[in-house]
Amino acid sequence: MRALRPPPGVxxxxxxxxxxxxxxxxxxxxxLRDVELAVPAGTLLxxxxxxxxxxxxxxxxxxxxxxxxxxxxxxxxxxxxxxxxFPAELPFTAVGYLTHLGRVHGLRGRxxxxxxxxxxxxxxxxxxxxxxxxxLSKGTSxxxxxAQALLAEPELLVLDEAWTGLDQRARGELDRAVAxxxxxxxxxxxxxxxxxxxxxxxxxxxRVQGTGLAPWDxxxxxxxxxxxxxxxxxxxxxxxxxxxxxxAPPDGLPGxxxxxxxxxxxxxxxxxxxxxxxxxxxxxxxxxxxxxxTVTEPPAPDGPVGPADCVGHPPSGGGHP
Length: 321
Fold this sequence. Notes:
The protein has helices at about 55-65, 95-105, 110-120, 140-150, 170-185, 275-285; strands at about 15-25, 30-40, 45-50, 70-75, 80, 155-160, 185-190, 205-210, 210-215, 235-240, 260, 265-270, 290-295. The chain has about 325 residues and is an alpha/beta fold. The longest helix has 16 residues, at about 170-185.
């Protein structure tokens, strides 16, 4: 996992939490305390933790929906938020709601309506464009909730279990939209119950521990500016992905990967570790996108065979939705 520094040509940290704490009521227990978090432009951050540990509170503060009791939030980029529960009782049709929000976000004239229609199409909900929100199924309501956050191309996108309720196609489309936001210099902070979500794509993972937030790696202690491990210059990363039926990997992929076949019609791409993040984003943002199965570090040719290492998350044998 690489150090959290903004990509070349992208402004620095658009948002930072400094000593942030949150409790409800003047004498209530602290839900969060002394939280420090930098959210650089062009990065994808994941927050993990068991239920009830304050993940949603953390995201609401990052999104500006809730205010800290202590500490401060520095910076406020244009922010969009997808809550865990979407208020579907609003008196709009799906396209009317999205068009209204597009105008609120500064999209003028027909741009708002075009953006609304485009995102409904991308998430497979165009057939429900003129359905009142209150009559939509839970899954379609969630598609509208995600679309409203993406239509104005936010500088900071905050996702609280945003994949929940989406069908497989829509989950893959949200994966791709997240990768597009990051590739365009935006920042994305997300929580999801599926540990395979965006496997290997996160620039850093943070775990809620007690009332605090700490960098976390399932393989052991992690710091976002950790020195390179011995032999890091020679490390290689193997990405197993599945593309459209019969499609070859896109041309010009970062790192000039070695390409080989994988099980069940998949493709294995192996690159130097320094190029793995860029390769993941290129696959996720391809048209149509490739789905990521696993991200592992194979053992060195002359080294002992041991457990596969992973970029950002532990390897998983399951498919990427």
